[in-house]
Structures are given as C-alpha cells and as structure tokens.
Amino acid sequence: MNALSSQEYINFLQRGIIVHSYLYYELDSSIISDQEFDKKSRELVLLKNTYPDLWEASEYYYIFGDEYSGATGFHLYHGLAKTQQEKIRVIADILLNNYQK
Q: How many secondary structure helices (H) and strands (E) does the chain include?
C-alpha cells in the first residue's frame, strides 16, 4: 500500500477533525480523548504552516481557512455543504457504532 501524499494526509486530518468535532458537539459523544484531539489539531496546524499551498488546495479549506488555530472545532460541521455534512454523519455513525461494540 502506498503512503498518503501530503495533500491526502491534510485532507484526512481535516476530515478527522470535523468528524470528531461533530461527535463531540452535535452528538455529545467522543471516541478519542481531548488530548488526542488536541494532538491532531496541532499536527494539522503544523501542516497548514509547512505546506500553505497544499493547505489552500485541501478539500475542506473553505471551512478551516487560513485562521485555523486548532483551538476549537465547534463551527466546522455547520459550515459544510449539505452533501459533505451527510458524508461526515455517515463516517461518525460508523465510528461510533464500532466504538460502542
């Protein structure tokens, strides 16, 4: 299996942050600790600063923008297009169901 490209990894981390924010803020659930969420957020901010061109080309740039600092994910889900909200809900449901087993 090939490793993810930097662009794919940025997209992956962004999606993960949105999914976990959705779980936390919308469903009042969590499958990772606050410390793990903070670690992923710091990593995403580091990638944003290291690869600004890839950041601006990322799938969820329109939600995160240049001002993303990793401080919160409260607003992320509600800024998504409806089709992407559905995608996030499906991913979150699958993760939550598997976590609860």
A: 5, 0
